[in-house]
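In this section we turn from sequence analysis to structure. A common task in structural bioinformatics is to predict how a protein folds when a small molecule is present, because the ligand can shape the pocket around it. The inputs are simple: the amino acid sequence and a SMILES string for the ligand, here zinc ion. Study the lines below before reading on.
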Amino acid sequence: MAEREGAKAMRAHDHGACIREALAAAEAAAARAGVNFTPVRRRALEILLESHTALGAYDLLKRLEADGFGGQPPVAYRALDFLVAQGFAHRIERLNAFVACVRPGEGHDPAFMICRKCRAVAETAGPAAEGGALAEDAEALGFEIERTVVEAEGLCPKCRELQP
Ligand SMILES: [Zn+2]
Ligand SMILES: [Zn+2]
Ligand SMILES: [Zn+2]
């Protein structure tokens, strides 16, 4: 089966293109939704996009502060709330941290592969996606899925290579 777009996060890839595409997609989605993609929200997304690694709210706040956006916690929390609500970023519950979405603006049910060593996160399709067992059983039962949380923890290819 072909690898999904999000899995490349854990392989060598053109990350510059990755950042540009995600930012452009987020901008287009914000314009479509008629929401205000303010400089601090945009900068917060850029910081999350720098690597495919989960970043905590506190670390984001320190980065925003260094960029002159102020050091009050609500600055980071409000920006993160916006990014998550718009689907531009996802919260990784296991790490209490955030990652940029690899296909912002598209409605989707994500699942994550999380490296326990380097905190790299790769996004894939979640179990509520069409054709999955969960989706099929829920439909048969008449259960309406509102949200799923799938976080697979393990070792990314890079960290596995470094294993003794
Ligand atoms: Zn990338
Ligand atoms: Zn996503
Ligand atoms: Zn790793």
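The longest helix spans residues 15-33. As an exercise, try to locate the residues that line the zinc ion site and compare them with your own expectations.
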